[in-house]
Amino acid sequence: MKEGPDIARIAALIGEPARANMLTALMSGKALTATELAGEAGVTLQTASGHLARLRDGDLVQVRKQGRHKYFALAHADVATTLEALMGLAAGQGALRTRIGPKDAAMRQARVCYNHLAGQMGVQMFGSLLQRGLIWQEGEALGLTEAGKGFVCDFGVDLDGLSMARAPLCRSCLDWSERRTHLAGSLGRAMLARMETLDWVRRDRDSRALLFTSRGSEAFSRAFT
Amino acid sequence: MKEGPDIARIAALIGEPARANMLTALMSGKALTATELAGEAGVTLQTASGHLARLRDGDLVQVRKQGRHKYFALAHADVATTLEALMGLAAGQGALRTRIGPKDAAMRQARVCYNHLAGQMGVQMFGSLLQRGLIWQEGEALGLTEAGKGFVCDFGVDLDGLSMARAPLCRSCLDWSERRTHLAGSLGRAMLARMETLDWVRRDRDSRALLFTSRGSEAFSRAFT
DNA sequence: TTCATAGTTCGACCTTAGCCGAAGCATTGG
DNA sequence: CCAATGCTTCGGCTAAGGTCGAACTATGAA
After folding, report:
1. Residue A50: partners with Cβ closer than 8 Å, 6 or more residues away
2. Among A206, A205, A200, which residue's Cα sits nearest to residue A220?
């Protein structure tokens, strides 16, 4: 009768409104301070402090101390993946709760998901790369083809630098709004970073939405049709 | 502050040990009764009933009522995906325990279920009829096709007599050892009765097991391959 | 030094919800 | 009809944990 993996412990950790809000806020990939997270969660700092300690205990977030600030971020990409999966379930059944405002539409079109591009644009980019044979996919596994490496370098990404990193280069991530896979992993992050450098896209200050510039929008559709 | 889907509600649903155990048990893909799930979760039936109602409310499981049993299964493949993601996070990724139905081999092969044929043979017959287009199935609904009517009459069943009865002609019944559907309803009962008349099969005196004669076994596999 | 800001810990409330006993339906079998 | 079985509902008990005020530590700035 004893369990396998202790799924309840993790789910209970996520299943508390204040903590869920914090984790959702961290999905942007940005590191946030305890005070900021307290604001996101709508609780006082003491309460937030307790929650964050628990999240850290459960290995859902990691901390970096810097001066008198503590910056919190999601511990691992797996955490982001799991949260996306949960959002998929919640979105499938609960349109009743979320009113679709203008920001919501922007979120569906393009948003940041643990520092990589998600939403319609993310799915489009992934599909384009796949169709042109620049990446390959076999079940869960995912990778760059030779042609793909050339493409990515031409795009301006330092592929050699990425290869040194410990994290997997390519990962697939299931989109909660589109219900299709998009590109995650260190390559996914690098691609988004490059697009920001090129000023194709800018981050919204208050949400995870990504706003494409008119120039960037045009260039994007030319690059990933 | 409130953006995105209500992830906390779902996660809290999963994040309760008893419910998590139930969901884990359902990961096998098989449908389980409330009593079985209560055992899996280590709680009494009353408690389990409450939990299952909540899971059903949250669209994590779907239920199928059959006689005095209620069979529960995961609602969608998405639910299983999310649970797997959570298990991945829980790191201690362990074995799923599977509790199998009846231990008696004969019972598993063929037995009586409300006067119709159940067990491996029942599932086989159902599959054969379906594949050959003799019956049709749409969700819960089930019926005989024109070709099926001919087949049944040839088999020696008085279809006209059955149609007079109040009870539905065809019903699907979820097998408690195979956990797949087989043929129930007045037709299911008539089919079994006919097989007994033909001396294909005899009832065991002390149990619900059905013993196929050697001749009957041969004829059965010829008729329902 | 003194003050201000960031975060933690403690203690005390108090709501939530998980749990079971007992009784109530519903279905099946005799 | 009655008995047995599967499940649900109700009521009360209890424990867990979320919440905040207040006091405390730590870092940085004037």
Report:
1. none
2. A200
Pick from A62, A81, A89, A98 the residue to mutate for testing the B interface (most B CBs within 10 Å).
A89
Structural domains of chain B, with CATH: 7-89 (1.10.10.10), 105-223 (no CATH)
Secondary structure percentages of chain A, helix, strand, coil, to 5: 50, 20, 30
Query: A198 — contact with chain B (CB < 8 Å)?
Result: no
Spatial distance between the Cα atoms of A127 and A133, rounded to a whole number of angstroms: 10
CB atoms within 10 A of CB A73: 18
Q: Which residue has the tokens 């389990």?
A: B48
3-class DSSP assignment, residue B169 = coil
Question: Are the beta carbons of A87 and B20 separated by less than 8 Å?
Answer: no
DSSP category for residue A170: -
pLDDT tens per residue across span A184-204: 888 888 999 999 999 999 988
3-state secondary structure of A183: strand
Tokens of B10: 């779902």
Q: What is the pLDDT of residue B165?
A: 57
